[in-house]
Amino acid sequence: MPLDIIGAGFGRTGTDALRQALTELGFGPCHHMHELRDNPEKIGPWHDHFCGGAPLDLETLFDGYRSQVDWPGAHLWRESAEAYPDAKVILSVRDPEAWWASYSKTIKVFRETEMPPEAAPMRKIQEFVDVFLGDRLDTKERAIADFEAHIAKVKETIPADRLLVYELGSGWEPLCAFLDVPVPDRDYPHTNATAAFQKRNINLET
Question: What does CATH list as the number for 5-202?
Fold first, then answer.
């Protein structure tokens, strides 16, 4: 199935809560890095593309998914937007300083953690994340500059009527208005706090 929703926001911009929200609104299954962590058999095509030079095959990478948020899919936002011209694009954002504080305690630590032999799938995720992020986010100054440049590039590239710039903490209303669906009678999801990320992805506990 083609993607209906393309998430262009960096990790640590509320993407896990957004994944859950899109699923509750009927736009699931939603691809997220958690899908690779929880389903190691799905890692291979991503690793083959980023680390092995395999041609980009979006149909394989997003097979079975109706929407996508978070890395690694967000790194392919431009290619996905071109391949699925009817899909809407959601750019999740947050205050740059708050984003760096969250990224530096979670994804950055994950990238720098030596995985034990029994965590081979997570090591493969590390490998391809290192390929597409490179050294762009190694320091606070460079990371925030890259974060802000990315937001500007997405806004410049995607037509305004196809794009929702979704600020962390905005709740259901702007998302539902953009997707033209009713606002649910329940709280917007709140997930993936820093401590939970560290426990599941760095300490490798379930």
Answer: 3.40.50.300
